[in-house]
Amino acid sequence: MSVLSNFGDWKNFLNERVEQAQSLGMDKDTITDVAYQIGDYLAKEIDPKNEQERLLKELWDAADEEEQRTMASLMVKLVHGGQQ
What we know:
By secondary structure, the chain is an all-alpha fold. The protein is 74% helix and 0% strand. Helix 2 (28-45) crosses helix 3 (51-62) and helix 2 (28-45) crosses helix 4. This is DUF3243 domain-containing protein.
């Protein structure tokens, strides 16, 4: 089962990657930039697997780059329990 097929699994996966990045010394801005790049890739290349992903893709597609970066930052904040 892919982490993309279940939104809860995706959030757990992303949280683990955020913790890993922090343990490697990445700062908040770098982590947010990586999250933006991942979000952009997913929106362009991956078909949404559930309603949550479909909503995120539609929001991403409607947003300009600054708004997309805000979404990436919020997603990191969401999965990491507001810790940054």
